[in-house]
From TrEMBL:
GO terms for cellular component: box C/D methylation guide snoRNP complex; small-subunit processome. Belongs to the NOP5/NOP56 family. SMART domains: NOSIC. PANTHER family: NUCLEOLAR PROTEIN 5 NUCLEOLAR PROTEIN NOP5 NOP58, OS07G0661800 PROTEIN. This is Nucleolar protein 56. It comes from Aegilops tauschii subsp. strangulata (Goatgrass). GO terms for biological process: ribosome biogenesis.
Amino acid sequence: GIMTDELRNFLELNLPKVKEGKKAKFRVGVMEPKVGSHITEATGIPCESNDYVQELLRAVRLHLDQFIDQLKPSDLEKAQLGLGHSYSRAKVKFNVNRVDNMVIQAIFLLDTLDKDVNSFSMRVREWYGWHFPELVKIVNDNYLYAKLAKFVVNKSDLSEKDIPALADLIGDEDKAKEIVEAAKASMGNNHVHNWYMLLSSCQGSLVYVIFFLFSGQDLSPVDLINVQQFAQRVMNLSEYRKNLYEYLVTKMNDIAPNLTSLIGEMVGARLISHAGSLSNLAKCPASTLQILGAEKALFRALKTRGNTPKYGLIFHSSFIGRASTKNKGRMARYLANKCSIASRIDCYSDMSSSIFGEKLREQVEERLDFYDKGVAPRKNLDVMKAAIEEGMTNTVSEEDKEKENGDTTAKKSKKKKSKSEADGDAMDLDKPANTAAAEEGTEKKKKKKKHKLEEPQDQEMAANVNGEQDETPKKKKKKNRDAAESVEPKTATEGKKKKKKSKTEADD
């Protein structure tokens, strides 16, 4: 309900002025009554807003292309569409870098990749274990096992020359020597059978005896090539999983920096994906956020009238794991409260910084100390004041840095200009001496010409003065002859005159 300056200028230009103390002979129809009241208060123009005015404005909007000659219906539709987009963007405050859908997709893909990499690495262990069974006990990591399976291929080809290369792969020389020794004394080479027996008893005194035959076998070259290709595929998948995790970390720091600094990237991303979006998570109360991910247990407890769950996805946070068993519920409730505050700050604040998340994390640490040692934590009001002060100082320092960068760029440009000018002067100094001599000669010639032109003019002026003083025509004739003679080329008298002039100038 606020009148803009543009609207005010338009009304004052196109409407007749209303004199003071007199009623206006017109009325302005306005759709919004608040805008009309503001116009009358600011300008004194009478406005009216009722059903009749609204119907008239609706008809004007409908037939606007007929009132304006050069307006097309397509232009009007484009203008309406652009207005709708700009209005919705202004309301939602849309930012491409803060789209939380990418985080939801990334965390889902990470979970599926974890399952796939684990199942494929187990398949590599089982497949290559038929050829080199001792390698499973030496190397526990799946990625390293796939690397070694691709590098070793045939265990009979391993020798002491390969120990440096194996040490570079594993990062441990002792393990590399152990692998080479195990390859030499492998069961596949000696064709020795190891038997393992597992006994398990249950009710009814039933005993199950299971025998395992696990011996290393020599594989054909084609089988070894297939194992090698599959190990390479597992390595590629695990590397892609690492890159995807780094991408998720960067996106979480852009979208929800406070939530990330408080609870971590993985737990924060799982909370956002389970809620549907960051705005939905910000709308959730702390009690809902606490049991987010434990809906089945909640409804089962409500049906059976049992104990409701104390935590859901928030259980994966390190704070709840560090708390004692009797304080886990309290810690989950307190952490859910801080997570709801952090998510609301991330969703609705224009400034993207992790200061509030760091301060909230400090509060959670203090609460843990309070539960364990009894140390009194700080109040929430004091912590938020400190966070706001830090945020203000950081913004001021960033502005100062930007100014310094601008000053440095200006100084660099000035230095470049001065360097270019110095180079130009140096080029002028480096010109050949012949050109300098030629310029001096031209200057001397110009001076001589100037002197020649100045001397006859002076003589003519003197002749005119003498002619006026002498009345006889004879003297005029003589002086005219002298003037004609002076126009001729230089004589010895001219040289004397020049010398006299130079002496007088030196005396001056």
